[in-house]
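Agenda item 2: flavin-adenine dinucleotide complex prediction
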Amino acid sequence: MEKFRGVDYYGIEELLTEEERMVRDTIRDWVEAEYLPIVAKHHREESFPLHLIPKLGELGVFGATLKGHGSPGLNNVAYGLIMQELERGDSGLRSCASVQSALVMYPIHAYGSEAQKERWLPRLQRGDAVGCFGLSEPDHGSDPGSMKMRAARKGDAYVLNGTKLWITNGSIADVALVWARGDDGEIGGYLVEKGTPGFSTLDIHGKFSMRASVTSELSFQDCRIPLENKLPNAMGLRGALNCLSQARYGIAWGAIGAAMACYDWALQYAQARIQFGKPIASFQLVQRKLVWMVTEITKAQLLALQLGRLKDQGKVRPQQVSMAKMNNVSIALETARMARDILGAAGIVDEHPVIRHMLNLETVVTYEGTHDIHTLIVGRDITGLSAFGDA
Ligand code: TGC
Ligand code: FAD
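Presented output:
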């Protein structure tokens, strides 16, 4: 297959600033040179290329939109383009970066004490330390407000008890930001360092999706952490959900990267593959699939770009982020499935990236709020009526 040719049917390139294009091209070149040659191996071995984490730090990927503590303070469109390019590599690569940036650095930056910021932000930014975010539990995924995990105050410590499940970066993290209910019934965020007695992790194996990403269970059994490890300004479930809005924003862009990879690959394959004496790209049914893909990718690009511009102006609402996450992941998954189909039998082997993206996107459509949960968030917004049972 030829080099990736980019997907820009509507001249969206012209809507980007020079800096945004430069950031995108830097990450695109790096992914091509350093990541794509090794991703299939890591996918087969069910491992994450840990050695690339400091390199991602050097490239300025972690906490790219934050200001201070070593972060460059890029705008949200540039950040989105970084997520797009990482996910054109693999959803697992984008996941590692978005958890670190949006779910660990962002909350420490937004809700942390000065000491917490100084201790963690520069190291996380450089990729000298890794973070993870524990919200989901075995019995509470879509409904984190019902979480069981407890943080009880005992003298000069909080004592954590509970389990978090499906945690990206879990066992490789130096610091886990976990959400637990305190004595007052309020949900809060707590920083737990690797090696703290009573804290253990177990990796989840046998995944058919996100194989090149670490997913773990976190267990807390009478795990004592100092009082100063609680995020002082994260109030209630709202604090956790606000972090999700940051991460969902990145996913809305990231999914476009996976979709572009699949579309471009399928198009090139269809132009080269001969059946009945003609390239399969000449058949109307194949063209229909390719046209659907490029149309949906173009719509997703415009949705993400306007979302980013609104975010940069401080005007974005969480429900708008939900719409973009819901739509862009859904069309990316459908694009990957169609691309897999166009490749025929070749579509099932990892010599081609398509099935890897397709399987990854089954996770992306589920995590950070499932497709249906985002549908209901937008539904509640437009009707004023909640499907979740609250007023
Ligand atoms: P609800 O009453 O809706 O909200 C409670 C309070 O939070 C506020 N809020 C938000 N604030 C900021 N951003 C958002 N996205 C927000 N959504 C809600 C809300 O205004 C309210 O504030 P206040 O002041 O009135 O208290 O709470 P609910 O319990 O009814 O929530 C329902 C629901 C479904 C919307 C919510 O719980 C939800 O989003 N569920 C999905 C769970 C989820 O997305 N989990 C993701 C876990 S992390 C993950 O998957 C990482 S994957 C790795 C990677 O990113 O790569
Ligand atoms: P459930 O909530 O049990 O949902 C099952 C089905 O029921 C879904 O189809 C859902 O849409 C539907 N459903 C639920 N409620 C409703 C309703 N009210 N109306 C209609 N349908 C409904 N979590 C973290 O905290 N941190 C992480 O780093 C993290 N990383 C992840 C990595 C991977 C690879 C995966 C797979 C998951 C990860 N998650 C993480 C967990 C993820 O956020 C949850 O899986 C997700 O929120 C859904 O929860 P659940 O799996 O328990 O499904």
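Discussion summary: The chain has a mean pLDDT of 97.
Owner for follow-up: CH.
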